[in-house]
């Protein structure tokens, strides 16, 4: 280390952020040091007398120097670069930090001579394969992106039905055992302008001498999502994460605050310096309270208010598509809200957007747990754990409760009883294991510690997958590491049978969201055949012609569509399909309830004992009953049972036909 500031950077930043990922850490250009806090502490103690005696430049410039040395290269470039001393800095009043960054830029002389110009390119913010109504979102500087209009994304009919079926199947599963699709930083979406200027700023990357392998192409992505909150809810999301921060005198959706990353500061300052040298009028806002810098390329005051985002959610909840479902709203906020005295604003926005009666609060939970405790005592069972004893979705709906509010910061009594704190474990033992540590089927666990922890153990594991990119920095601000793995459709499907409580991907689309489905297979149940229109002739000849047409149409339907009025689970895929009811198949039969215990609560429902039995459709042996899986773990267990019985499929007792399928035929499950 060359100074006290480098020592502080080495110990407080390099080790803390990198110790889990790299066996060593080093200051660029120096020998590697073991990543051990003890060694860092020893270095600090030995160097204190020397470090304080060495004259130093302003701390900010040193921070930028150290961070820039990791991101950028000061070596001569093969490109035609204007020498740093020849850059047009006269009259620009550059800061000490900006002067440090000049040597990392490569701006051709011809580009310095270009006239200032408005941005003419409109970013296309509609992901491949997504159909929707296209509209423009424009910021206060009239810079625009082409995005999907809120609520207009086309979701296949089979998927809409599969989402509804899967949610209804879990209606009687206690919330701590249910699997609910989430999304990461749900409201940081291009549909509302976040990332609007990414392509503009990425265009400046060519003027920076990056310290990356030859041929690598850094990119900028600051929006977690393309599509609106409304469309995410329509795709089955029931756990939303809202980044709420105090910006410009209001609570806004903002991906900012709560961190100080020197490399990100260096990147943003370098981009602003390029814009300044080229005479461009647009700057990346780095000075707003709570956003230093903003992590999404959008002007700070163009970020939507929290109340506006909550209003969008409330509007969807009031529509038919919500079907009375309960949502979990997780506020990714900061302790600064308490310091600034604006926690009341957060609660006020919630109550302005939603009826107070919708909120399942801490008092409601205490009453619910007390009721379960009385029932347990009467049955001679141990008392329940309040953290993992939560109502079922059906119980919430019956009580008129449709919202569970969770805060990342614990504001104590200031948010009681409306909001639950995340980190005290009171919400189903909420924890957030890293995606890299989580294993899908067949392991279905989280690695780490003395032993692997099952994903489905009665506690909520929220696993996020972030796909933001800041040049060579990944979402965790690690240099040249990338973001893999992530929860794309295949990644979600790998956890669908594991009972992962809240998988929370980025960049959600209908195709990606379909990976979280474990029930109906794609394009199932088979649709009703199209109704062909017969001849429009009149009189007896017309009647005869229509009769012949209908007869031919009936024959065509029988041959082409083969009416599929019954449901099965396919052994190979584990998904549900509609087939002809005339097939000779076994039945999926659930063993009757048993009063086994698992720790402190009755647990016969933890995983069904399935019997795949012969007999007429719907008939099951004594002690069992025809039933369908209620969650992904049961579905995976049933598909294994069907394979173990050497069957290709088994009947499921679902009522309906080619055009309408419900779970009404399933036995009561309590």
Automatic annotation (TrEMBL):
Organism for this UniProt entry: Auxenochlorella protothecoides (Green microalga)
One GO CC annotation: membrane
* Biological process per Gene Ontology, one example term: lipid metabolic process
Report the domain of life of the source organism: Eukaryota
Q: In which compartments does the protein localize? A: Membrane
Protein name (record): PLC-like phosphodiesterase
Taxonomic lineage per UniProt? Eukaryota, Viridiplantae, Chlorophyta, core chlorophytes, Trebouxiophyceae
Keywords assigned by UniProt?
Membrane, Transmembrane, Transmembrane helix
GO molecular function, a single term: phosphoric diester hydrolase activity
